[in-house]
Amino acid sequence: MSHRSWRTRLILVALAVLTLVTAAATGVSAYVLVQLGRIERHELAGVLTPAPQQPVTAADVLIGQSAAVAANTDSAAGEDSAGSDEAGIAGDGVASGDESDSSSDPSRAADPPAGQPVLPGGPTGENYLLVGTDSTLGLAADDPLRAGHSDNNRLADVIMVIRLRDDGTAAMMSIPRDLAAEIAGTSDIAGTGVIAKINSAYNRDRTTAGRAARMIDTVEDNLDITLQHFVEVDFEAFLRLVDAIGGVEMTFDRPLRDEPKENATDPTDSRSGFVTAAGTHLLDGRQALAYVRSRHLEEQLPDGTWQRHGAWNDLARNDRQREFLRTAVAQVAPALLANPIRLLAVLDIAADHLSTSDTLGIVNDGRRLAGRSIGVDVEAGVEDYKLRVVDVHEPVRWSLGLDPQHAEHNQRVLDIFRGIGWDDIVESRVRVQVTGAARHQVAARLSELGFDAQAAGPMPEGISHAPEGTVVYLAPQGRLAAGLLVSHLLPVPDFAGHAELDATTVILHIGDEPPRIDPGYRRVDVPSADQLAP
Question: Closest Cα partner for 450 from 435, 434, 472, 431?
Answer without folding.
Answer: 431
